[in-house]
TrEMBL record:
InterPro entries: ESCRT-I_UEV_domain, UBQ-conjugating_enzyme/RWD, UEV_N, Znf_RING, Znf_RING/FYVE/PHD, Znf_RING_CS. Residues 167-208 form the RING-type domain. The lineage of its organism: Eukaryota, Metazoa, Chordata, Tunicata, Appendicularia. Keywords: Metal-binding, Zinc, Zinc-finger. This is RING-type domain-containing protein.
Length: 220
């Protein structure tokens, strides 16, 4: 059954490959088969691939997998209701895992989550951004224990990603060309580089803080 699940996963999510077999996490505990790769997700029409590790315990599929976000050096984990600060991902499908559950359905749910709330962000983001995100209200865990409630949760919390991915003025995604993410270092607010250059006055559009050209710090 384990080999059958891996075969199905390879057809639907070919980027997830076996990194190692019979390994121990931190040198202790149960033995795991580690799947390493990425989960594709589409956010507002843009395709992303989020680095992910899926750990299959020796007793899989009787026991559920473990899932972790796997940031590169340029990325960081973006914690949420379903993603811990260490990158551990817990969703209702894992909590209700049975022997008939499948890795493909698990990855489908992960893709749904990532499409609305990416688990990774650029490593360099402003303190103001982190503070604003931490103050946002989350749906209590007790109200999102079913798969349906989980999918409803991620669709309702799309605003959580706007601080990280969108310019607050033009509402377009940051990119590595004209719309590089730019932090106004004197106040911590961020906009894209193109909008920063078009401001009629050197005033932050969000708090009216005066700034100079040297206060514009490109972080992406």
């Amino acid at each position: 059954m384990k080999l059958n699940q891996l075969d199905q996963l390879a057809r639907h999510y070919p980027d997830l490959k076996i990194e190692s077999r019979n390994c121990r996490i931190d040198g202790i505990g149960d033995e795991y088969t580690v799947l390493d790769g990425s989960i594709p997700a589409t956010f507002k029409g843009v395709n992303y691939n989020f680095a992910t590790k899926i750990l299959l315990p020796y007793a899989f599929p009787q026991e559920p997998p473990r899932v972790k976000a796997a940031p590169t050096e340029q990325m960081r984990v973006r914690s949420s209701e379903y993603v811990s600060e260490t990158g551990k991902i817990t969703i209702p499908y894992l909590q209700s895992w049975t022997i008939s559950s499948s890795l493909v359905e698990l990855c489908n749910d992960l893709s749904a989550l990532f499409s609305h709330f990416p688990p990774l962000a650029m490593a360099h983001s402003s303190p103001k951004t982190a503070s604003a995100i931490s103050k946002l209200d989350y749906v209590p865990a007790s109200s999102a224990r079913t798969r349906e409630a989980f999918l409803d949760f991620v669709s309702q919390n799309i605003d959580l990603v706007k601080f990280e991915l969108e310019c607050g003025i033009c509402k377009l995604f940051y990119n590595r060309e004209k719309r590089k993410r730019t932090v106004i270092s004197i106040c911590g607010h961020q906009i894209c580089h193109e909008c920063a250059q078009k401001l009629p006055k050197k005033l932050c559009p969000f708090c009216s803080q005066e700034f100079r050209q040297q206060h514009l710090v490109v972080t992406f």
